[in-house]
Amino acid sequence: MSPDWVRFDDVRFGYHADREVLRGISLELRPGTTTAIVGPSGSGKTTLLRLAARFYDTDRGTVRLGGLPVSACATDTLLSQVSLVFQEVYLFDQTIEENIRIGRPGATDDEVRQAARIARVDEIVDRLPESWDTRVGEGGSSLSGGERQRVSIARALLKDAPVVLLDEATSALDPQNEAAVVRGIRELTAGKTVLVVAHRLATIQHADQIVFLDEGRVVERGTHDDLLAADGRYAAFWNERSRAAGWRLTPATDGTPWP
Q1: Domain span at residue 82?
Q2: What phi and psi, each to the nearest 5 degrees, are found at residue 117?
Q3: pLDDT tens per residue, range 52-105
Q4: Tens digits of per-residue pLDDT, 170-209?
Q5: Beta pairing class for 163-167 and 193-197
Q6: 89: closest CA among 79, 102, 107, 106?
Q7: Which among 69, 195, 242, 254 counts the fewest CB atoms within 10 Å?
Q8: CATH code of the domain covering residue 14
Q9: How far apart are CA 25 and CA 10, in angstroms?
Q10: Any idea of the CA torsion for 88, 94, 99, 105, to the nearest 10 degrees?
């Protein structure tokens, strides 16, 4: 079996013994395909990513990578196969270059710079007083959220792992950072096996498989077009989000001040 084949077999999990977050999830991620996870808040989307990365072990069922349970994988082996890009990015109190190089410590300087250029980290570096040698502070405190995401994507690009776990994090970014992050994500996921938690549905229309979660269960799965045609939960979710995206606030024309 291909090393980038990912499967969830009847996975059950809860952060507390009295409440399951995932309730019997079975999914198959074929090599080189993108699976998007959508659903309401609290449905268990990010928890799936955490289990795939083995931040936690399942209560029941098995997560497999290349046919092998992730619980049986050595930590170094698992991490070599998986790149993580989550909403909350943690950077070490080191230089920008050192934070990127964590993705592949043996990379050449040219390889580090190339990953940085693709993620447009070079634009950040150009503004910093010590260029590549600028320390970013504990947790990356000297950078904005969007800039930290760029560094995170550069790190993942340098790592070049066959499986990408992506908690899409563009919704709160300013336009400049969003454009850079989206470009980096496209480069990062090309040809990879991708599991993405989607916050902006428009970004996952072309996913090979869309899975709709609700209360820890898979309630629908299929392509975007198939799910819209089925006129079920995904279609309702899509239509609701599409209407919300079209909302605009306009000033009153009668002289009434803004609240």
Answers
A1: 6-244
A2: -65, -45
A3: 999 999 999 999 998 889 998 888 888 889 998 887 788 889 999 999 999 999
A4: 655 677 777 777 788 888 888 899 999 977 777 788 889 9
A5: parallel
A6: 102
A7: 254
A8: 3.40.50.300
A9: 5
A10: -140
